[in-house]
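Allow me, if you will, to draw on your knowledge of protein folds for a short while. I have a record of one protein: its chain in single-letter code and its fold written as discrete structure tokens. The full record is reproduced below for your convenience:
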Amino acid sequence: MRPLTTSLAFSAVLLLAACGPADDADSRTRPHADAGPGVYFVNIHDGDTVTAPFRVVFGLTGKGVAPAGVIKADTGHHHLLIDETLEGEELDFAIPSDANHIHFGGGQTEIVLDLAPGAHTLQLNLGDLNHEQFDPPIFSERITITVAAADDPS
């Protein structure tokens, strides 16, 4: 009979082999920790095709999440830009709140979206306690996803 530690080690090796190589998908959009604060999409990536409704999970490195209006050092809250960009003069003002600029002022880190079929761009932005930009602004990579049309029941 083999010693217990040998059996456990052998079992661990088999388990790792069965799982295959680690998924590197997260590294496609997740900022490197040395790059400073960053926001990213956890479960969707540029070029993905999804079926509505679908869940979008937000990630954050280098800062913490706190609700809007809460004064706490090194924190902010997410904003999701759908088929929109913020640039130029827009960066000097509070982020608008509408169907294309979704605020997560409660500190939420995910949403279920029900977008129309077709191509859509998504980008995350981290706003401060007043929905304004950090200096420099903190944006995710802008990704394009395709929402598949629902199957025709006929």
